[in-house]
Write a structure and sequence with these properties.
The protein has 202 residues and is an all-alpha fold. It has 2 domains: 12-88, Orthogonal Bundle (Rna Polymerase Sigma Factor, Chain: A), CATH 1.10.1740.10; 103-201, Orthogonal Bundle (Arc Repressor Mutant, subunit A). It is built from 12 helices and no strands. The radius of gyration is 20 Å and the shape is elongated.
Length: 202
């Protein structure tokens, strides 16, 4: 639960010490996500720096013992939307209704290799390098990309994601489902271009 209540510090040194202990350990996760959102190292660095400036200024509103990482990610998402509003809200030309459920599994079972077991899908996914998965994630439209990142990379629960993104849990579930389907489609297309499918499934 992301809580915001006023906390009184004895002095500035106590505030700094508490902030360093609570917020700084999340810097790597914030930068990793900022880089996936901005696709630019300089923009990611600037974004994370601004997150920490905003967080420190409003640190008296953070309730000790609650999820600081989720609080920081909420600031990150809001700042990113404000700074990159046009690109973040650009609608995708893809009709997500055209990407069916279990996209990757369906593609694998349609290959000439017969009814491939479910663990073949996992083997196929594991054949990708981190950079290849990163490239596929970065192709996702913003709303789906941030949701997939928060759930599948950063490990936030639905309720935490809903609070970070300021949307209902139902919306989180829908975006995550569509984002995962689209990610599978990108990975399958990526594999076909590099002739991974025949090698992996043989």
């Amino acid at each position: 639960m992301i809580s915001e209540v006023r906390v009184e510090f004895k002095d500035e040194d106590e505030k700094i010490a508490s902030f360093e202990e609570t917020a700084i350990p999340n810097m790597d996760s914030l930068y990793r996500t900022a880089l996936r959102l901005t696709r630019n190292e300089k923009d990611a660095e600037d974004l994370v720096q601004e997150v920490y400036l905003r967080a420190f200024k409003s640190f008296h509103q953070f309730k000790p013992g609650t999820n600081c990482k989720a609080w920081l990610f909420k600031i990150l998402n809001n700042l990113h939307i404000n700074r990159f509003q046009k690109s973040a809200r650009t609608p995708s030309s893809l009709s997500f209704d055209e990407v069916e459920d279990f996209y990757l599994y369906n593609r694998i079972t349609e290959t000439p290799y017969g009814n491939t077991p479910k663990d073949m899908e996992e083997e196929f996914l594991n054949s990708f390098l981190d950079d290849e998965v990163k490239e596929a994630i970065e192709k996702l439209p913003y709303e789906f990309r941030i949701t997939v990142i928060l759930a599948d990379i950063e490990g936030f629960h639905y309720q935490e994601i809903a609070e970070i993104l300021s949307c209902p849990i139902g919306t989180v579930r829908s975006r995550l489902s569509r984002g995962r389907k689209l990610l599978q489609k990108y990975l399958w297309d990526y594999a076909k271009k590099r002739d991974y499918t025949k090698e992996t499934l043989s």
